[in-house]
Specification:
The structure is a single chain. By secondary structure, the chain is of the alpha+beta class. The chain has eight helices and six strands; from the N terminus they run H-H-E-H-H-H-E-E-E-H-E-H-E-H. The protein has one domain (38-206): NADH Oxidase (3-Layer(aba) Sandwich), CATH 3.40.109.10. It has helices at residues 23-34, 50-60, 80-101, 104-110, 121-124, 150-167, 182-186, 220-223, and strands at 72-77, 127-134, 136-138, 144-146, 171-172, 193-202. Helix 2 (50-60) crosses helix 6 (150-167).
Length: 228
Amino acid sequence: MYRKGEVSYQPLPLPDRLDVPDAQAAADAFLAHMRKRHSVRQFATTPVSASVIATCIATAGTAPSGANHQPWHFVAISNAAMKAAIRAGAEEEERAFYSGGAGDEWLAALEPIGTGAHKPHLTDAPWLIVIFAQRYGMTDDGTRYKNYYVPESVGIATGILITALHNAGLACLEHTPNPMKFLNELCARPAHEKPVMILPVGYPAENATVPAVAKRKKPLGQILSTFT
């Protein structure tokens, strides 16, 4: 975390060491756990406590980041009026997207996913988490400082957040209307923060479905190269 005037390196002994007697078994178990993660668009009305959401976001905050500047901010919303306003803004952008703004190739790629301009999950889900990337930071006295590797850092934190939500038994959907500038005003965030994603979060509905194509993952041989 950036602190004005602190520039010296002070090493600490590694504070935590994990004792994993069987690394392969642990890796296999976690893979099996993560294969049960699915993005859903149908959410149950079952409440989710604010403390669970806060803990998952705290977990995201453990992510590594460029120069440890932690260039992210998360806005968690359960307020019905705010969710409705976000849905209205998102659907306005999505109508332009699906009416031709995206281009034929992009729309064809999305067809197997079954998406459209109608986004009921934005009001059905008990929570929305809006993720902001901070283009630069500001100290308490208003001094501006540079953040580094912002997209990479926020991407890592977002992945950890999605994993933490899944680990808590929750489902989410990675939603990225374009553009998303309307979210700054709705979420009372400054102009130097860029909204990058909305995550509707909750328990999946009993009738929740996933696109068949979403279960087609690239085999390991296509995503891994090994040199020994």
